[in-house]
From TrEMBL:
Keywords: Decarboxylase, Lyase, Pyridoxal phosphate. Belongs to the group II decarboxylase family. Its cofactor is pyridoxal 5'-phosphate. InterPro entries: Aromatic_deC, PyrdxlP-dep_de-COase, PyrdxlP-dep_Trfase, PyrdxlP-dep_Trfase_major. This is Pyridoxal phosphate-dependent decarboxylase family protein.
């Protein structure tokens, strides 16, 4: 063993580094919450940022605490109450500790022997979600690396259930139906599966950006006449841009009529299953064949931690039936404890630890509290926007995603005006919000992800937008 290696594995060195890091992280939380962190996003253009880190790298080996500190300073601060950007949660700190632990233990999970703890925990969490969704005891689920991969996995399961493509290949032209507001990863998944442009049937949405269920029959008929074989329909719960919930009951009835697989993409908004107040938004979810819910969006866990739940346990095992002699003896046995049989990943992060740690430390109620507080806050923000005559809402929000914009009272088009406002907000870094385009109109968009955000922050945001507009 070289002295270098000996030092790298020294328990004393680790103890010292870890204590220093945890202190730094606790200070960071304190600063984020007290408002003493100056910016939410210390934005630099990409070239400038690259140059900064290239110079850092040139300096060679140095104190790791300094590197951790720089990383904190130069990152986007999700724990800042004025973080309202993308749909990623500021993790509950205890879950970050579980991340540290799993980073050390590094049990790879694909086979039971490499996931003695994480495989059972994953099963317990899947059963918890299945119950919340309203599935019976036949349901089962798994965790995988993100909603994107989970949606692909669900569509692969749909294909396995409806066709023999996995074994025999096919010359059939398979297709899926989805709303034009669905997350782009559905489109990507269908393309990966060889469906091409025509195989992704995008159904238009109504004025609330929900799939037009009155058009499903027509689109299905047109697809069939073109020689396409529709195998699945996907409902968004909710959509990404506007946070709109599709009518899952209607989709379920349509799927049943035509023997289609019904997949519900609840990456963001499936979390309402934890809330009596908001569960009505996903009425019909229990009729889905598969459901995706991201723990790292509304459920407070670090990314990536995504649940894919199947109504019938059998379906989960059909997706990736393959021999792997060095991993498991029998490809056909349905061992829940060898999680690699059902996931795209072989070695996989011990994701379940992070969620389980939240449950142990804070109980299930924390998910209810988070979802209800943030969805309520979406309503509050909508009221504040409507109270100011110079602003307009794109639509009444159903969730914590709100799209709005400042009206233009000059020659400048509202699109240019709002794009300039968002650019200035980003450069100033005091708030982090994003933008989206709906029917050619550019809107400012907030996802209220931080349960420490209050009405005061929302009022300050609207004030700031007005100030910027006055200076432009
Ligand atoms: C965020 C999101 C996804 C993608 O999930 P990742 O975890 O970011 O890969 C898919 N669908 C919907 C509806 C989403 O909101």
């Amino acid at each position: 063993m070289t002295p270098n290696i000996q030092k790298a594995f020294s328990p004393d060195l680790f103890r010292q580094q870890a204590h220093a890091l945890v202190d730094q992280m606790a200070d960071y939380l304190e600063q984020a919450q007290s408002g003493s962190l100056e910016t939410v996003i210390p934005y630099k253009d990409p070239e400038e940022s690259l140059a900064f880190w290239q110079e850092d790298y040139q300096q060679g080996q140095s104190d790791v605490a300094a590197f951790f500190n720089k990383t904190i300073q130069h990152s986007t601060h999700l724990h800042h109450p004025r973080y309202m950007g993308h749909q990623v949660t500021p993790p509950v700190p205890v879950a970050a500790l579980a991340g540290l632990l799993s980073g050390m233990l590094n049990n790879g999970m694909a086979v039971y022997e490499m996931g003695l703890v994480s495989n059972p925990l994953e099963r317990i969490l899947s059963e918890l979600l299945a119950k919340k969704i309203g599935f019976d005891n036949n349901a089962s689920g798994l965790l995988t690396s993100g909603g994107t991969l989970a949606n692909l996995t669900a569509l692969l399961a749909a294909r396995a259930a409806k066709t023999g493509v996995w074994e025999d290949g096919t010359s059939e032209r398979l297709a899926v139906m989805v709303s034009e507001e669905a997350h782009y990863c559905i489109d990507r998944a269908a393309r990966i599966m060889g469906m091409g442009d025509e195989g992704i049937i995008k159904v238009p949405t109504n004025e609330r950006f929900q799939i037009r269920t009155d058009l499903l029959e027509q689109y299905y008929k047109e697809a069939s006449e073109k020689g396409l074989r529709v195998i699945a329909i996907i409902g968004s719960a909710c959509s990404t841009s506007t946070g709109s919930y599709d009518d899952l009951e209607a989709i379920a009835a349509f799927a049943q009529k035509h023997q289609l697989w019904f997949h519900a993409d609840g990456a963001h908004g499936g979390a309402v299953v934890f809330s009596d107040k908001y569960r009505h938004l996903v009425k019909g979810l229990n009729k889905a064949d598969s459901v995706v819910i991201d723990w790292h969006k509304m459920l407070m866990a670090p990314a990536l931690t995504t649940a894919l739940i199947f109504r019938r346990d059998d379906d989960a095992f059909k997706t990736f039936q393959q021999k792997a002699q060095y991993l498991w003896a029998n490809q056909h046995s349905k061992d829940w404890f060898n999680s690699g049989k059902r996931t795209f990943e072989c070695t996989k992060l011990m994701m379940s630890l992070k969620v389980y740690a939240i449950l142990k430390a804070h109980g299930e109620q924390i998910f209810t509290d988070n979802v209800e507080y943030l969805y309520d806050l979406g309503q509050t923000f909508a009221k504040l926007v409507k109270a100011r005559p110079n602003f307009e809402l794109a639509l009444e929000p159903e969730s914590n995603i709100v799209c709005f914009r400042l009206k233009s009272n000059s020659a400048d088009s509202p699109n240019n005006l709002n794009a300039s406002i968002r650019k200035k907000l980003l450069e100033d870094g005091k708030f982090y919000i994003v933008q989206t385009t709906l029917a050619d109109k550019l809107y400012l968009r907030v996802s209220l992800m931080n349960p420490l955000t209050t009405e005061v922050d929302l009022i300050a945001l609207l004030d700031e937008i007005e100030n910027i507009a006055n200076q432009l």
